[in-house]
Each structure stands twice: as structure tokens, then as C-alpha cells.
Amino acid sequence: MKSTSLTEVVSENEQNYDRVSELKAFDETKAGVKGLVDAGINKVPRIFFSPPDGFDKVSNPVKAQVCIPVIDLDGIENDPILNKNILDKVRGASETWGFFQVINHGIPVRVLEEMLDGVRRFYEDDTEDKRKWYTRDGLKTVVYNSNFDLYKGASTNWRDTTYCTMAPNPPSLDELPKSCRDILVEYSREVMKLGRFLLELLSEALNLNPSHLNDMDCAEGLALLYHYYPACPEPELTLGVTEHADYDFFTVLLQDHIGALQVLYQNQWIDIPPVPGALVVNIGDLLQLISNDKFKSGIHRVLANNVGPRVSVASFFTTGLMPSSKLYGPIKELLSEDNPPKYRETTPREYSLRHNARGLGRTSALSDFKL
Questions:
Q1: Model confidence at 114, in pLDDT bands (50, 70, 90)?
Q2: Hey, how many other C-beta atoms are within 10 angstroms of the C-beta on 73?
Q3: Burial of 363 from C-beta contacts in 10 A (0-12 / 13-18 / 19+)
Q4: Residue 119 near residue 224 (C-beta atoms within 8 A)
Q5: Roughly what angle, to the nearest 10 degrees, separates helices 181-205 and 80-96?
Q6: pLDDT tens digits, one per residue of 277-291
Q7: Which of 88, 263, 289, 314 is most buried by its number of CB atoms within 10 A?
Q8: Cβ-proximal residues to 24 (8 Å cutoff; 6+ apart), any chain
Q9: What does the buried/exposed string (b/e) look like for 143-174 if buried means 16 or more CB atoms within 10 Å of the residue's CB?
Q10: What is the pLDDT of residue 67?
Q11: Phi, psi dihedrals of residue 317, rounded to the nearest 5°
């Protein structure tokens, strides 16, 4: 049977396609992609078709053995030689990939598993119960919707997302979904401890005092974004997440066993395979900005799959849209006559607004802040 190419599918019925109306109809269901799957669709709606990006959706076999570093943090605080070795790995990964994984990070496996179970409970709860959380008001404590850039993106991603602001002003339990409120609080507490420790490592990797990034309040804000990627009937036509870089200082990602996360490295998509008990750490735009391009914000994406649901939890270290006058620019200790500042100062809120206005895509908002 002859397969249909994406180009052929996209050109079909072009004259009858009203994207805006279809986006609005999808949004008004307040049921997300999960609602489409529950309704029994067997074809991917046109709004989800991803334009070609010039790269294969499968990693280059020649580079199949190339992987982001997996860094074992066990014993780091008691062994100076091990500490130096780990710092070298963190520095190298942050300068080249913008990604690394950590194991023996201190968060119990039980907490990781319960967090993923809590995500599944939320999305597999009754649709009516979930709808009360559905909103496009980014200032709410809990923001559940499908595609924050639904009306801006070139294509709609095959995933639903819930955004919970957990710091600096922790929500009360009744402000969180009942299906996962307890584990959201516990996981946030654990990941915040890990985040502060990682900032110490990142500070030292920049040859700064270990407390430098924490003293700059890079861990002041924490938002948990938990994602649900339903099984897709035609995964070759869409993406779980469009290629992009994160807008925060850095992200700690908990992913389940399914995989599908990829990072762009030397113009090739490289898989980031799930490692049991591991967490993925990636540099965000704001850390690239304050490090004056020493560390790189890694471009990544998630493939759609037909074996889902895939679930993941991204912990964003940033105050995001919260009002703040605190300015962040290239760290003075990293600058010199040969390395002048490359970016102007900004607030996390200004940067987040610029990022959200652009929507997901390979060109980040960093270009808007270059000197």
C-alpha cells in the first residue's frame, strides 16, 4: 500500500482549511489532546501537522552511540578528586550540549515514581473535573491547557500541559488539583534542594564562588510543568513538542520509560534515552545570558509516539511572569576586555513575555537582548 507523504497530506483540501476556526474549536473543548484520543479519533487533525524542519525524526545511525553525559553525584561532597571530575563533566556538558543527566541525586525513587503516577492521575481523571483548571491566564497558580502558544505556533503539539507555580510563594493545598497535590508539594521540596545544589556545581563550573548563582536568586522561583503525550495514531505527521530552548535559568526533567526526547547536537537530533532513577538537566536561556554564552541553552524536542501515554515533569527554575524589578545581565566576574557583555540586562518576567510572544521555535528570544 502506497504511503502518503506529509507534503501530499498538507496540500489536500488546502482551500477549505480554516486553521483559526479549528484551533478555536479545539481550545473550546477544554479537553486537550487527551480529549481527542478519548473521542476515538484515528487521524491526526490538520492543526497538528508539523512543517518539515530539514532534519530526520530518527537519530543519525552514525551518531547513535553519542549521548549526553550521565553524571553520578554519589560521594561528590567527600572526595575532592571526584568533585573535580564531576565539575569538568558539568562544565563540558553545559558548554557543548546544554544537557546532562544526573543519577544518585538524592531524590528517592519512590518520590519520582509517585510524581509520575500523580501526573497520570490528573490527566486520566474525569474531563469535567479537569476543566475547572483549564485556562490561558498565565498568572494563575495552576494553568492547564494544550499548547501555551496555540494561536501563535506554526503547528499544534501533540501534548497537554499543566503549569504550577510552586515558589517563591508556595500555594496552599486547596489551590492544587486533588489528584496530585500532595506529591506536587513533596516533589517540589525535593527538586528545590537539588536545584540549589546544582547551582553550586554550575557556579563552580563557571569558576565562580559555589554560592554565586544561588546568591543571585536563580533558584528563587520554581514552576512545575507536567506533560501528557497521548498515543498518536499518525506520529509521523506531528511532534510532541516543537524544537525549542527553555526560557528559564535551568530545567530539571523527570521523564518516564518511553523516551522520545531529543537534543540538537552538531545539526543532528540525538536521543536522550531514559535512565532509571535519573533526572535530565538542561541549561536555559537566562543562564546562557548571564554566563555571556559560556553555557549554552540546548535546543530540544519531543517526538510523537504510538505507544503512549508518555508523561514527564519539567521543573523550571525561574520566577517567570511574576512581577519583579530584579535585573539579570552577564555576570561581571566573567567579563573582560576580550569578553565584553553580549546581552543587555533583563528581568525574568520581561524575558518570559518575549518568549511567550514568540512561541516555540529554534530561534529563541535571546536574539532580542543582544547588544
A1: very high
A2: 18
A3: exposed
A4: no
A5: 100
A6: 999 999 999 999 999
A7: 289
A8: none
A9: bbbbbbbbeebebbbbbbbbbbbbbeebbeee
A10: 87
A11: -95, 95
Entry pTM: 0.92
Residue 11 resides in a domain: no
In this structure, the number of other CB atoms found within 10 A of the CB of residue 367 comes to 10
pLDDT at 203 over 70: yes
Distance in angstroms (rounded) separating the CA atoms of residues 82 and 80: 5
Range of the domain at 131: 18-55+69-369
Helix axis angle, 109-123 to 181-205, nearest 10°: 130
Q: By three-state DSSP, how is residue 362 classified?
A: coil
Strand positions, DSSP E, 136-278: 142-145, 160-167, 222-229, 239-244, 250-255, 261-265, 268-271
326 part of a folded domain: yes
* Cα–Cα nearest to 164, from 191, 150, 184: 184
Q: Is the Cβ–Cβ distance between 252 and 195 less than 8 Å?
A: yes
9 in a structural domain: no
* Number of compact structural domains in the chain: 1
Per-residue pLDDT reduced to its tens digit, 295-327: 999 999 999 999 989 999 999 999 998 888 899
Total residues found in the chain within this entry: 371
Q: Residue 250's domain is classified under what CATH number?
A: 2.60.120.330
In a domain, 90, yes or no: yes
Do β-strands 310-317 and 300-303 pair in parallel, antiparallel, or remain unpaired?
unpaired
Phi, psi angle pair for 221, to nearest 5°: -110, 145
| Residue pointed to by grid coordinates 558539568 | 90
CA 156 to chain centre: 16
Residue 188 near residue 195 (C-beta atoms within 8 A):
no
For residue 314, how far is the Cα from the chain centroid? Answer: 5
Beta strand ranges found along the chain (DSSP E): 70-72, 99-103, 142-145, 160-167, 222-229, 239-244, 250-255, 261-265, 268-271, 279-283, 300-303, 310-317
| Distances in whole angstroms, Cα of residue 10 to Cα of each of 13, 100, 219 | 8, 37, 44
Judge whether residue 2 has pLDDT over 70: no
pLDDT for 8 equals 45
